[in-house]
Amino acid sequence: MEESLIVNLPNRLQKDIEAYGEPYYFNKNETIFSPEALLKYFFIVFKGRIKVSQVEPESGKEQTLKILTTGDMYDIVSLLDGELHNNLLTSLDDHTQVMRFPIHIVRSWVNKNSSFRQLILPYIAKQIRETEELALDLSLHTTSQRLFKLIVKNIDPETPGKLKLIHDLPHEEIAALIGTTRKVLNRQLQELKSEGVIDVKRKNITPKNAQKLLDHPEK
Q: Measuring CA to CA, how many Å separate 120 from each of 83, 97, 99, 110?
């Protein structure tokens, strides 16, 4: 499992994970559990991508908060405070696989298992930082700056000509990630394309010059 949080664990914790974990599979656009279910359960992503978002009921406007992928965990908030966390979770891929655990078991690992704490505490800190970054981006940066940061963040260091999590997402999904509309996003994409730093074909965004992107003044 790539970048998994549950490899190389002590035998006792590995046995607990195997004993209590239940595999679940989802197809593209399926809902991944409900907020009510996640008061009772906790999961780790084994394969695929899951969108975490919130929708404003009156306008229907959606803001994507994050995209979970292999090794990510959910829901940290309900795990810690036991309160309903009203996010919408949607599979972005066919054959998305998660491992689900009773949340009281995971709480016992947090309280009693130092090996698990060593894994989950840095992960919690990372999630807090990413949430702060999203809030600052939405309040302080322009749409073009948010798009540029998203593209640069997703450049695959092993394959600079490819993006990671967002490479094949529809433009509506990318617009929801940066808090804008598809129309505005398309205009910004065409500007970057005209500068020769990306190529856009249908829903695929491809970096043409990774170094130029990294050196771009808006980064």
A: 19, 20, 16, 8
> Helices 103-112 and 11-20 meet at what angle, rounded to 10?
170
Q: How far is CA 136 from the centre of its chain?
A: 17
The position carrying tokens 């607990």 is 16
The tally of CA atoms less than 13 A away on the side-chain side of residue 79 is 22
User: Rounded to an integer, what distance in angstroms lies between the CA atom of residue 204 and that of residue 167?
Assistant: 6
Q: Would the CA dihedral through 2, 4, 6, 11 be positive or negative?
A: positive
pLDDT tens track for 102-145: 999 999 999 988 888 888 999 999 999 999 998 998 898 899 88
User: Is the pLDDT at 77 greater than 60, yes or no?
Assistant: yes
DSSP bridge pairs for 58: none
Distance from chain centroid for Cα 23? 20
Instruction: Show Cβ contacts of residue 161 under 8 Å, excluding neighbours closer than 6 positions.
Output: 206, 207, 208, 210
Q: CA-CA-CA-CA torsion for 75, 79, 81, 83, nearest 10 degrees?
A: 60
Identify the three-state secondary structure at position 59. Answer: coil
Measured between alpha carbons, how far is residue 199 from residues 135, 188, 190 in Å? 28, 12, 9
